[in-house]
Write a structure and sequence with these properties.
This protein is mostly helical. The chain contains nine helices and no strands. Pathway: Lipid metabolism; fatty acid biosynthesis.
């Protein structure tokens, strides 16, 4: 196995475990009013780790499209740093925070596990393949809708007109960006599950 495959196997395995920890914490603490305090730091740094996926795509060590990868990673990075962390007074008490993390962590546990199994060179179980290319049908609308709502709420409480304008601009990008991401995944689903 090449050094890049070993690295990617390690990266995907660690990422799957980090998101699994977040998912299990959410499941165990779902109704806890302190859920934000319990998982926010873990989520912020786990998502920040994913920024290197843009480099993976750019350098060609993965076949992921650079623009699609950048779009998803950038949107989530803005969400964890500028919204969830920057406006915790809005985020911490919102059920949208929990639903967003439930969608993100479920999707990412499956995605990273799928890639880890693929890189390990063992046959990918059909159930895992189906989950990888089907869960997004439900999880994308939940995650994207939750992200949008939290950003909208941050826009309503900020006193900085520049920040409010920037967030409003990003809110406007959600519609075309979401359609682009959804179409990309539908195309990937059709191609992968038809084989």
């Amino acid at each position: 196995m090449s050094a890049s495959k070993v690295y990617l196997l390690l990266y995907n395995s660690v990422s799957a475990l980090l998101w699994l920890r977040i998912l299990l914490t959410i499941v165990a603490s779902y109704s806890d009013p302190e859920i934000y305090t319990i998982v926010e730091t873990w989520t912020r740094w786990t998502q920040t780790l994913a920024v290197i996926e843009i480099l993976h795509a750019t350098t060609g060590i993965t076949r992921a499209p650079v623009f699609t990868t950048f779009t998803q990673i950038f949107a989530r990075s803005v969400q964890v740093w500028a919204i969830n962390y920057g406006f915790s007074d809005v985020t911490a008490s919102s059920p949208a925070y929990t639903s967003m993390l439930a969608a993100w962590s479920t999707a990412d546990v499956v995605r990273y596990l799928y890639f880890a199994v693929l890189l390990a060179g063992v046959p990918v179980p059909q159930a895992l393949k189906w989950l990888r290319y089907s869960l997004f049908l439900v999880l994308y609308p939940i995650g994207i809708g939750s992200e949008w709502w939290l950003m909208y709420r941050a826009t309503t409480v900020t006193t900085n007109p520049f920040i409010a304008g920037l967030f409003t601009f990003f809110l406007g990008l959600y519609a075309p960006g979401s359609v682009m991401m959804y179409r990309y995944m539908v195309k990937q689903r059709r191609k992968t599950l038809s084989n």
